[in-house]
Amino acid sequence: MHERRFPVMGTTAHVLVVDGTPADLDRAQHRLEDLERRWSRFRPDSELSQVNARPGVPVIVSAETYQLLGQAVAAWRLTDGLFDPTVGATMVAAGYGDSFDLVGTAHASGPPAHVRPPGPAGVVFHPYLGAVELTADVMIDLGGIAKGAAADLVAAELLESGVAGCCVNVGGDLRVMGRPPRPQGWQVRLECPGGGPAIPIGLVDGAVCTTTKVIRRWPGRNGWEHHLRNADSGAPLETGLASVSIIAARGVQAEVLTKAIFAAGAEAGTAIAAANGVTGALVDDDGLVSSLPGLAPFTAAAMTAAVALPGSSQERAEVATPSDREAA
Length: 328
Known about the structure:
By secondary structure, the chain is of the alpha+beta class. The protein has two domains: about 45-140, ApbE-like superfamily (T-fold, Orthogonal Bundle); about 170-325, T-fold. The chain contains nine helices and 15 strands. The strands form four sheets. The chain has an eight-stranded antiparallel beta sheet, covered by helices on one side. A three-stranded antiparallel beta sheet has the order 3-5-4, covered by helices on one side. Strands 8-9 form a two-stranded antiparallel ribbon. A hairpin with a 2-residue loop joins strand 6 and strand 7. The longest helix has 18 residues, at about 20-40.
């Protein structure tokens, strides 16, 4: 097994391949760097920045960007707005206008600056052009969903290139595919920020993502700000949860569901997890860690046999609300 760590997407990536070569790691690194150049809100030359900077103009983008923007808008609809990609202006107003390592205390005084995200009604897709057009009030921030999508995409491409198995971890958004290095599957950690040590799990094919308010935060005009926002007001989201970690079939699905569950709170979020057939762990503001139903087999798998997630490779992993599942 070969592995490599490198900085990308404002974080650190860790890529491992089974029955691969250093050249496979080279391709994975170059691909992740390429996706950052397309999807970063902090690079003025990125495809996302070009879409954000030209309201009222259809901007032709790559197939990967067009697909990801479509997934982000679909996730808003499927989660009843709990996941919202239109928080770009909200982040800028709160002081998160640059990459996180450059966020300082310039916004730590004065009145609160909370801008309500407008929702994606102003996002228009032009399929014949492969272009995306925004109205003037919309600024897209792909944020975590870009990391989940990147992990999914690069893992699939590594398998297509001939490696037997791989693990692609982009700052905690992790996807494993193919043959694991041991019968128990990939031994990974289900992070529980704000609630103590990580939970070891075994995963043969699937994704793990974590979202939290306790790490990516900064001093703002009205107390501490963080990157998880209230869709109704633009203020920092407070639902009694400190972090959410989800095991799902794909990185995009896991990433969307961590945000939706965090926004819904523990009780409603548990119902969302059940409706989507995923599991994981919640940490509340007091540091209490609660396992979601279905987690036990994955913790046992860390010591015995691997557990597979339904739909992790072949089926498309959608996101549903409890009402969607009941209607189906």
